[in-house]
Write a structure and sequence with these properties.
Elements (H helix, E strand, L loop, with lengths): L1 E5 L7 E5 L2 E7 L6 E5 L7 E6 L4 E2 L15 E2 L22 E4 L1 H4 L5 H5 L2 H7 L3 E4 L3 E2 L12 E5 L5 H14 L3 E6 L11 H4 L3 E7 L2 E4 L6 H18 L4 E4 L13 H16 L4 E4 L21 E3 L1 H12 L7 H4 L2 H11 L6 E3 L4 E3 L13 E3 L4 H5 L13 H13 L3 E5 L19 H16 L14 H6 L12 H17 L12 E5 L4 E6 L2 E6 L5 E4 L4 E6 L11 E4 L3 E7 L5
Parallel strand pairs: 8-9, 8-21, 9-12, 12-15, 15-16, 16-17, 17-20, 20-21
Antiparallel strand pairs: 1-4, 2-3, 2-5, 3-4, 5-6, 5-7, 10-11, 13-14, 18-19, 22-23, 23-24, 24-28, 25-27, 26-28
Keywords: Carbohydrate metabolism, Cytoplasm, Glycosidase, Hydrolase
Catalytic activity: hydrolysis of (1->4)-alpha-D-glucosidic linkage in 4-alpha-D-[(1->4)-alpha-D-glucanosyl]n trehalose to yield trehalose and (1->4)-alpha-D-glucan
Family: Belongs to the glycosyl hydrolase 13 family.
Length: about 575
């Protein structure tokens, strides 16, 4: 087996520790800074590298870390797994994504335990499961965004074999699997990359410190490292797509950006494998060039999250106006209508929150709607609240049903956060399991200071390091059978069924979306082909002039179709999907 490592920091040499043996690596004459050696090894054998006689460190490209990020690497034979199911070949158009955190989806918090529940999602009508990060991090429980080994699966989740079983099970049910990956930073503990080479640069500074080196000397190899990791998830684990965390935080001044390079590599991999893996960006830039094809001057990513839609929907539902919600809260129904058809609320307009103009308009004629994801809740928007409270903690079932309706019938690709479909009563809080006591205390105090500035008492903010914080965040599946959860679950199932059965709901034409609203009366109606979707967020019934002939396809509360006067009389905190009277249901 060939063992190789990029270690330009080594001056006197690199040694491989493999079992009880130590042997020197030779410089690779064809690649500057690379060292290599051949040695017999089998799946599961432990190994590491020593630079200049120093401590033995895990391989930067560790495929497995059985003892965590500070332990030795283990050899993984990716050819040994007997795959049972083919790729489901699910495209983004027509997709319904479901964001899932392995550590809290079940009490066990493992990939195998989560796989046992995937039948529920297939039955619900979900098409893709979007897994929060799985890369190895210190401790057992955490969100995963402090990962330090971009090629390895977190061992407490079950390691590489468990991820393969999960993906195989999902594919057998017709579900695609999307994996959240983090390229903009690595965690503060267990990160051994700086010992090997210039993986980070002081040229740029980020909220996490020195930036990942995408444009300074040595960045060719760092980019290749991250590209190789991304392709490994697609190749070795048959992942169907990647969600790229906070791409706006990638400091990259090169003419050919890392994101373009990554998109090109993923497209080439898909062409070679006769499949279409995709990349979904999380971006705060409000820039449609993120998903514009490379041939048209864009970065060529396939889709991006649309936080503007979330913020407009959240303010319309809750009335919250603090922080970045302030821009949307001035006229939330207008903001909601704009983000439904125009995608970005800030499309070159002034953002009071930022104190400047922000964003760029989406070309609604040339840009398909499935370039954007719409959602009412995500891990960020729940977990970054002081108490990790979901919408279900403060909204009526009727308003939760309205949120579901706007997400699942809107033009963007809908995404749900786990448990949302039944209005889970459990919070989803910020939890960590840092093994470094100083880091653990810094995180604890930082969290308290952050929310003290917003008026929260210290004792009210959950301790991220307390195991009870994670335990409170585990879903309670028994809720699904009880009211009002069962009724809401049935509504989600109904809406997803409509999305799959009515092509108008997956029409990519953004320019065809038409919305009307009444800011004071708090109702909104929009058109998707021959369908009309109407929500009433007010605490009293609304009369909504639709005109024409319509019939009810789905309604949260019993509601008659509009009479001869064309007026829809919709109960308080309710919603309805109607079909043109001449259309088939």
């Amino acid at each position: 087996m060939l063992f190789e490592v990029w270690a330009p920091n080594a001056r006197d040499g690199v040694e491989l520790e493999l079992g009880d043996a130590r042997l020197p690596l030779a410089p690779d004459p064809a690649r500057d800074g690379w060292w290599q050696a051949e040695a017999p090894a089998a799946d599961g054998d432990r190994y590491g590298f020593s630079l200049d006689g120093g401590p033995v460190l895990p391989d930067p490209r560790s495929r497995r870390l059985p003892d965590g990020p500070d332990g030795l690497s283990a050899v993984v034979d990716h050819t040994a797994y007997p795959w049972r199911h083919p790729f489901p070949r699910r495209a983004l158009r027509g997709a319904v994504l479901y964001e899932l955190h392995i550590g809290t989806y079940t009490p066990e918090g493992t990939l195998d335990a989560a796989a046992e529940q995937l039948g529920e999602l297939a039955e619900l009508g979900v098409t893709h499961v979007e897994l929060m990060p799985l890369c190895s991090f210190p401790g057992v429980h955490g969100w995963g965004y402090d990962g330090v080994a971009p090629w390895a699966v977190h061992e407490p989740y079950g390691g590489p074999e468990a991820l393969k079983r999960f993906v195989d099970t999902a594919h057998g049910l017709g579900l695609g699997v999307v994996l959240d990956v983090v390229h903009n930073h690595l965690g503060p503990s267990g990160n051994h990359l700086p010992s090997y080479g210039p993986y980070f640069t002081e040229t740029h500074h980020t909220p996490w410190g020195a930036a990942v080196n995408l444009d300074a000397p040595g960045s060719d190899e760092v980019r290749a490292y991250l590209l190789g990791s991304a392709l490994a998830w697609l190749r070795d684990y048959r992942i169907d797509g990647l969600r790229l965390d906070a791409v706006h935080a990638l400091a990259d001044t090169r003419a050919l950006t890392f994101l373009e390079e990554l998109a090109a590599a993923v497209d080439a991999h898909g062409a070679a494998e006769n499949r279409e893996p995709f990349l979904i960006a999380e971006s705060d830039l409000g820039d449609p060039r993120t998903t514009t094809p490379r041939a048209a001057g864009g970065l060529g990513l396939h889709a991006q999250w649309n936080d503007d839609f979330h913020h407009a929907l959240h303010t319309a539902l809750t009335g919250e106006s603090q922080g970045y919600y302030a821009d949307f809260a001035r006229a939330p129904m207008a903001a909601l209508a704009k983000t439904l058809g125009h995608v970005f609320f800030h499309d070159g307009s002034y953002s009071a929150f930022r104190g400047r103009h922000h964003g760029r308009p989406v070309d609604r004629v040339r840009t398909p709607a499935h370039r954007f994801l719409g959602y009412a809740q995500t891990h960020d928007q729940i977990g970054n609240r002081a108490l990790g409270d979901r919408l279900s903690a403060s909204l009526s079932p009727g308003l939760l049903a309205c949120a579901a309706t706007l997400v699942l019938t809107g033009p963007s690709v809908p995404m749900l956060f786990m448990g949302e479909e039944w209005g889970a009563g459990t919070p989803w809080q910020y939890f960590t399991d840092h093994t470094d006591p100083e880091l653990a205390e810094a995180v604890r105090q930082g969290r308290r200071r952050e929310f003290a500035a917003h008026g929260w008492a210290e004792e009210e903010v959950p301790d991220p390091q307390d195991p009870a914080t994670r335990d409170r965040s585990v879903l309670d599946r028994a809720e699904r059978e009880r009211e009002p959860h069962a009724r809401l679950l049935a509504w989600y199932r109904k809406l997803i069924g409509l999305r799959h059965s009515h092509p108008d709901l997956t029409d990519p034409d953004l320019a065809a979306v038409r919305a009307a609203f009444d800011e004071k009366a708090r109702w909104l109606a929009f058109r998707r082909g021959d369908l009309r979707v109407v929500v009433n967020l007010a605490g009293q019934p609304a009369e909504i002039p639709l005109g024409g002939r319509h019939r009810v396809l789905a309604a949260w509360e019993p509601v008659p179709a509009p009479g001869p006067d064309g007026v829809l009389r919709l109960p308080a905190e309710s919603c309805v999907v109607l079909a043109n009277g001449l259309a088939r249901g």
